[in-house]
Amino acid sequence: MKSEKGQSLVEFALIIPMLMLLLFGIIDFARIFHVYLTMDHAGREAARAASIGKDDSTIKSTAVFDASNIGLTTDKITITPTGTRSSGSNVNITITYPITFLTPLIGNIVGPITLKDTTVMRVE
Predict the structure, then answer these.
(1) Model pTM?
(2) In angstroms, what CA-CA distances link 92 with 42, 62, 70?
(3) Between residues 82 and 36, the one the model is more confident about
(4) Cys-Cys with 39: which of 86, 112, 117, 124 at CB 3.0–4.6 Å?
């Protein structure tokens, strides 16, 4: 009977790339989901600030503060309509955020993506 000393090592070497791809894919999905939930929360808080009559700079700073853990900046936030809003009208807060994948193989196939979250709230 022949020796089977290296068989498990060869099998492990064949399986480990797929396991690593699966692991890093799960991590990438969790990162993207976390960013989306953070953007959604920041958009709701900014829309709430807009609905009670805050100015545009305060609205943007509210969103930036609530999404500080993802590094959101004011240039990624759009408020429509800008300026003074009349009572009973709607205000739209749109946040866009670019995401790059950690996994090189998935990143090369998919490329960078941009998440977009829009929140609409009525002005009081």
Answers:
(1) 0.83
(2) 13, 15, 21
(3) 36
(4) 117
Contact 47, 85 (CB under 8 A): no
Residue pair 79/91 in contact by the 8 Å Cβ criterion: yes
Q: Give the separation between CA 71 and CA 59, rounded to whole angstroms.
A: 16
**If you ran DSSP here, which 8-state letter would residue 52 be given?**
T
DSSP labels for 82-102? -S---TT-EEEEEEEEEE--S
Phi-psi region of 71 (alpha: psi -120 to 50; beta: other; left: phi over 0): left
Q: Each residue of 54-96: pLDDT tens digit?
A: 999 999 999 999 999 999 999 999 999 887 778 888 999 999 9
Half-sphere exposure of 124 (CA within 13 A, CB side): 8
For 2, the token pair is 């022949």
Structure tokens at 122: 């009525």
